[in-house]
Q: What sequence folds into this?
């Protein structure tokens, strides 16, 4: 007694879904891209690349870490040719697993050594700078600290939001260890815990909480508040960069790499990486995604953001420093911050 | 056969854990104990709360003279379609200090929306439909004579409900509560945003850099699920069920009398907090970004059609396939006491407790290793398969309730009249089971529509759904785009739930 309605619904469903899957089945010489960068932040560029070069592309979007795990699980049967990562951690994971191809020097040379891997297997394509986001109603500029290390001061007790389980915070802590050493980093983590820094899931949750006035300060990437202001110019939140090359405002990169499963398409993959470092692409990051361009001498367009040369940044070479991130995670866990 | 497919993720976890090693240390250490305790506490309390709330709502909208009950039948089911990370973000934005309520009405003494209570409340509000739908299906199939008898003995509606209706619904309530329990232990979105440190939070944070820990904790999750499923199975054996009725008289609608206003307030309150508040926040996101720069923020209606069709299409296909696949297992486990049936049941049901990422990676592992099926990788059929493995539990428990409501003597009578097995199934059993199967299909439908990790990893390239759209836009802080897609998801789920499920429960109430 299956009603006709359900039968019709089902038929329609199969039809639309079938059409959808047929129209996109890739293969042959098309370039398959696994992108940890979200559609909003890369699709127009990838379409331009395809139009300009005539190379067909298939793109799978997802979380950077999940896609890295997927590529790992797929092994040598992975359909992926190029991996775009939102954080150095995920691309470093694949590098440590020996899954990345050497990139051409022409691509690598476009960016400073601190924004690419030491072994030449991945390259930063855009940058996000760590900032202190603050509520402009609750905080007067004179209350802003000179250094991220000042945040363990009792006057900031309970006032600074952090996201200890989030990749961007973990990458930041790894960089801090490299620049300031494990002891000083651990002392800072313990200081934040002693100062009862409330924890949040991720950057967005922090920026929203600061905008609501739930908490005055938060340690995040600059990107999120810029996007919030783009949609809601009246939001009472602002980004603050720690001055004088303070470690609190280092640059984290989003990265591109060609995978060992690319085979014949390795050349095309490298061509895409070079395209993502071209003037056109770098301008797109500056204007459309409000990030730091890393190549071609393009400056960021957001007011109040200093140019790259004014910002200190270590090269987070996760490939040559295998096991760094697990050690970072241990330190964060030992400090007690994760439970917060 | 069916059981073997459903065992895939579990075997995958065992194989990978063995490869990585380190499981014994992880499980002995305190890393596991705290999160495990919190996971169990949250899952158990949420399951109980959902059982109470879902049953009350089902009875109010199905068997009383509650005003606007036909509208509420659909609305009450919809919170299930809201992805938990969106639900949590939206509830925080609505109820936290400085949130929407604070802005509109000036509530500023609100407690912080985080920790156990926030996770408990949020997950209860998002997952009570796991109880509501099966119980509503069961109630719609109960004969009106039950209540008539009670009423004629002079009992109040509440007494009739407690002493006569409730015992008939225990099977459905237990089925739903089990689904809630399994869902809560698998959830990551809500607990991470609300800062409640459970096993899934640990798995997520260890997955890339500390695989031995992530895999061992995943296995622990699976073991918990299996233990819970088997003990629930033991308990549910003892229940007796009154037979379902297929057609005929409409069920008696218990008059609520003076309780009408409070009952209405309860239903409106639940719908208000679980559905209207999140929808209001999503609408606020959408409107905020609808400035002059719509295209730049990706807020275009025309852009919504493809994900809308994809979402609806794959969800309907998955719902129907899931019910069709598990129905034989449901028959086997309900009609016969076999060990094979019990194992199959446990495997199917436990699959729901694993995080979607584990299901997806397990499917990758098996498909790329198995002969012949490699060509199916990242195609539509494989994605449906993954969904069915993940959500089969929902169809399973609802189907078992439906099968147990079919009186055997009807089948016997039909057989004595010479009708064959298929004919009996089609003309006798199916019509009686339809409400229950519809409920199972409805649950699978709503779960599939919001599924994220498996969709991202296994969908055909370029196949985006509303859920993936919402996720992507939220991750890039394109709130207007996320809000618009989420509103479309809620609207679509309303239409499909009515078509697939609620309409079938209403045949007695036309």
A:
């Amino acid at each position: 007694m299956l009603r006709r309605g359900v039968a019709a619904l089902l038929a329609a469903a199969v039809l639309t879904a079938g059409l959808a899957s047929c129209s996109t089945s890739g293969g042959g010489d098309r370039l398959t891209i696994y992108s940890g960068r979200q559609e909003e932040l890369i699709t127009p560029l990838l379409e331009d690349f395809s139009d300009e070069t005539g190379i067909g592309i298939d793109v799978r979007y997802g979380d950077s870490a999940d896609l890295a795990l997927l590529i790992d699980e797929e092994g040598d049967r992975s359909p992926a040719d190029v991996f775009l990562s939102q954080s150095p951690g995920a691309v470093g994971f694949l590098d440590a697993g020996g899954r990345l191809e050497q990139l051409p020097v022409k691509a690598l040379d476009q960016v400073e050594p601190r924004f690419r891997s030491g072994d030449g297997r991945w390259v930063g394509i855009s940058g996000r700078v760590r900032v202190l986001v603050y509520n402009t109603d609750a905080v007067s500029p004179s209350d802003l600290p000179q250094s991220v290390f000042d945040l363990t001061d009792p006057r900031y007790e309970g006032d600074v939001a952090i996201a200890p389980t989030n990749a961007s915070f973990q990458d930041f802590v790894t960089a801090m260890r490299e620049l300031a050493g494990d002891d000083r980093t651990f002392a800072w983590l313990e200081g934040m815990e002693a100062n009862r820094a409330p924890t949040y899931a991720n950057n967005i949750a922090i920026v929203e909480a600061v905008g609501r006035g739930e908490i005055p300060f938060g340690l995040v990437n600059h990107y999120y508040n810029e996007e919030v202001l783009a949609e809601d110019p009246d939001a009472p939140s602002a980004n603050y960069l720690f001055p004088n090359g303070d470690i609190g405002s280092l640059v984290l990169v989003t990265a591109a790499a060609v995978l060992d499963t690319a085979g014949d398409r390795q050349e095309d993959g490298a061509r895409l990486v070079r395209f993502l470092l071209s003037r056109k692409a770098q301008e797109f990051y500056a204007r459309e995604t409000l990030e730091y361009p890393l190549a071609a001498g393009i400056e960021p367009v957001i007011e109040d953001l200093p140019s790259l040369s004014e910002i200190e940044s270590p090269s987070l070479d996760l490939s040559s420093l295998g096991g760094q991130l697990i050690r970072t995670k241990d330190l964060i866990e030992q400090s007690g911050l994760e439970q917060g | 056969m069916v059981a073997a497919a459903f065992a895939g993720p579990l075997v995958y976890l065992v194989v990978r854990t063995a490869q990585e090693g380190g499981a014994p240390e992880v499980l002995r250490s305190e890393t596991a104990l705290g999160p495990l305790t919190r996971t169990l506490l949250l899952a158990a309390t949420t399951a109980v709360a959902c059982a109470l709330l879902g049953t009350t709502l089902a009875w109010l909208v199905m068997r009383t003279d509650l005003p606007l009950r036909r509208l509420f039948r659909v609305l009450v089911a919809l919170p299930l379609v809201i992805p938990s990370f969106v639900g949590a973000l939206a509830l925080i934005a609505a109820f936290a200090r400085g949130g929407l309520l604070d802005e509109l009405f000036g509530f500023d003494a609100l407690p912080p929306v985080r920790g156990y209570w926030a996770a408990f409340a949020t997950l209860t509000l998002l997952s009570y439909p796991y109880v509501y739908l099966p119980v509503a299906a069961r109630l719609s199939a109960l004969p009106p004579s039950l209540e008539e008898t009670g009423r004629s003995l002079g009992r109040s509606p509440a007494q009739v409900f407690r002493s006569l209706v409730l015992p008939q619904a225990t099977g459905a309530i237990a089925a739903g509560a089990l689904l809630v329990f399994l869902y809560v232990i698998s959830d990551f979105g809500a607990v991470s945003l609300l800062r409640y440190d459970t096993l899934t939070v640990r798995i997520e944070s260890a997955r890339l850099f500390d695989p031995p820990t992530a895999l061992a904790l995943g296995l622990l999750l699976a073991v918990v699920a299996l233990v819970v499923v088997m003990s629930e199975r033991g308990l549910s054996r003892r229940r007796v069920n009154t037979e379902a009725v297929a057609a005929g008289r409409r069920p008696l609608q218990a008059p609520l009398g003076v309780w009408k206003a409070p009952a209405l307030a309860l239903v409106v309150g639940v719908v208000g907090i679980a559905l209207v508040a999140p929808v209001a926040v999503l609408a606020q996101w959408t409107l905020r970004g609808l400035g002059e720069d719509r295209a730049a923020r990706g807020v275009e209606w025309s852009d919504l059609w493809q994900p809308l069709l994809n979402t609806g299409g794959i969800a309907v296909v998955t719902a129907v396939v899931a019910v069709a696949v598990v129905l034989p297992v449901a028959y086997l486990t309900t009609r016969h006491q076999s060990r094979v049936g019990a194992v199959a049941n446990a495997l199917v049901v436990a699959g729901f407790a694993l995080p979607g990422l584990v299901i997806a990676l397990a499917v990758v592992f098996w498909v790329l290793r198995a002969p012949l099926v490699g060509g199916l990788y990242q195609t539509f059929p494989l994605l449906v398969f993954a969904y069915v493995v993940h959500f089969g539990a929902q169809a399973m428990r609802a189907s078992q309730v439906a099968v147990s409501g079919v009186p055997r003597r009807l089948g016997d009578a039909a057989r004595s009249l010479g009708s064959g097995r298929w004919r009996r199934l089609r003309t006798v059993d199916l019509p009686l089971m339809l409400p229950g199967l519809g409920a199972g299909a409805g649950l699978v439908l709503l779960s599939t529509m919001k599924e994220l990790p498996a969709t991202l990893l296994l969908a055909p390239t370029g196949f985006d759904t509303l859920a993936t759209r919402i996720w992507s836009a939220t991750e890039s802080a394109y709130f207007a785009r996320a809000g618009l897609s989420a509103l479309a998801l809620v609207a679509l789920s309303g239409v499909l739930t009515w078509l697939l499920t609620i309409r079938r429960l209403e045949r007695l109430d036309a």
About this structure: Chain A has two domains: 25-126+251-306, 128-250+324-339. The first strand of chain A starts at residue 31 and ends at 35. Chain A touches chain B through 71 residues (CB under 8 Å). Residues 21-27 of chain A have pLDDT under 50 and may be disordered.
